[in-house]
Amino acid sequence: MRAIELRARDGVDKLEFVEDAPKPVPGRGEVLVRVYATSVSPTELGWYSSMNWSNEDGTPRAFPIVPGHDFSGVVAEIGEGVEGINTGEAKYGLLSFYRNGAEADYVIALPREIAPKPRSLGHLEAAAVPLSGLTAWQALFDHANLTSGQSILILGASGGVGSFAVQFASWSGAEVIAATSKQNNREFLLNLGAKEVTGYSSFQHFSKKVDVVLDLVGGDVQNSSWSTIRAGGIFVSTVGGPLPQEKAAAAGAKGLFFIVTPNGKELAKIAELIDSGKVVSQIQKVLPLKDAKAAFEEGLSGHNRGKTVLQVSS
Ligand SMILES: NC(=O)c1ccc[n+]([C@@H]2O[C@H](COP(=O)([O-])OP(=O)(O)OC[C@H]3O[C@@H](n4cnc5c(N)ncnc54)[C@H](OP(=O)(O)O)[C@@H]3O)[C@@H](O)[C@H]2O)c1
């Protein structure tokens, strides 16, 4: 089958498009999915080093690795013992980062990682949802326990995760302050549901005011935004590892970093929101599978608006 393979450590230069990758065979409890589209998370190749290039059991991970851990596709085969899933069903999902990903004609998924594809979306739009949508969902509702009436500052609001976070937070009744470095993202963010749009250098206006900060940028932007959290608030980040607990303590707030986990049940809820027209999937660009390397390079150059999607099959 066709696939993108990461042949060695050290990132984008080690990606290759091949046409003779072995087609995976579903084992007990597994599902084989024919991939129609997968989305690009530009920083993904760096995540394997934070997993120590190991398998889930700690043993060294073998190359090649197929990247791209979210997908939209159709169930092609069912392994022994799988119930409630049938061949021919359209599914979307987020796969464990410890297994091969979906930049390939076929991928193995576990039933708990997948959900029915949103009916209102084609495969390209659906593939932009699982990783970014779940990261935003888990940040807001599983970690920050965001509720109606609270205020939230979202840093990196126009990117893949941020564009979902703005929509989910707004849908939940929170007051959303969206932060972006680009003035021309203003209308885009207001249309997604932000009440206010700000740059990264104007946080003094929100001093000790917000209930929740969602940091999707890290570095200096993360450092300077601690001033905005109110005592008793929650500062959640997806970037750069554990947060400096002395900063959280000084602000009287809780600070936590987390890594998204596959969750078919949450994806089913997100699909409902999409099908009811409350949330939209934001695609920046669509490229063919063979151009994955260019998609990673462009994504890493930064300032993305929504997701880049790789079309695997039409
Ligand atoms: N922990 C987890 O489980 C998890 C899961 C998914 C993603 N992540 C991480 O979360 C972060 C956001 O992911 P994403 O997929 O939303 O990324 P993305 O689509 O690239 O968006 C990141 C946003 O950051 C903003 N930004 C600010 N300063 C930037 C700079 N110097 N260079 C580039 N962008 C800059 C950009 O928006 P403006 O131009 O508008 O400022 C950009 O849209 C990434 O670091 C990713 O690795 C972590």
Structure description:
This protein is α/β, with parallel strands linked by helices and 314 residues long. It has two domains: 3-129 and 281-311, Alpha-Beta Complex (Quinone Oxidoreductase, Chain A, domain 1); 132-257, 3-Layer(aba) Sandwich (Rossmann fold), CATH 3.40.50.720. The protein contains nine helices and 15 strands. Strands 3, 4, 5, 6, 7, 14 and 15 form a seven-stranded mixed β-sheet that branches. It has a six-stranded parallel β-sheet with strand order 10-9-8-11-12-13, with helices on both faces. A two-stranded antiparallel sheet has the order 1-2. β11, α6 and β12 form a beta-alpha-beta unit. It starts with a strand and ends with a strand. 47% of the residues are buried. The model has no long low-confidence stretch (mean pLDDT 96).
- The CATH architecture of the largest domain is Alpha-Beta Complex
What string gives the helices and strands in order? EEEHEEEEHHEHEHEEHEHEHEHE
Q: How far is the first residue's CA from the last residue's CA? A: 15 Å
- The top-level CATH class of the largest domain is Alpha Beta
Uncertain residue ranges: none
* Derived structural class: alpha/beta
Report the CATH topology name of the largest domain.
Quinone Oxidoreductase, Chain A, domain 1
What is the mean pLDDT?
A: 96
CATH superfamily of the largest domain: Medium-chain alcohol dehydrogenases, catalytic domain
**Rg from alpha-carbon coordinates:** 19 Å
Number of domains: 2
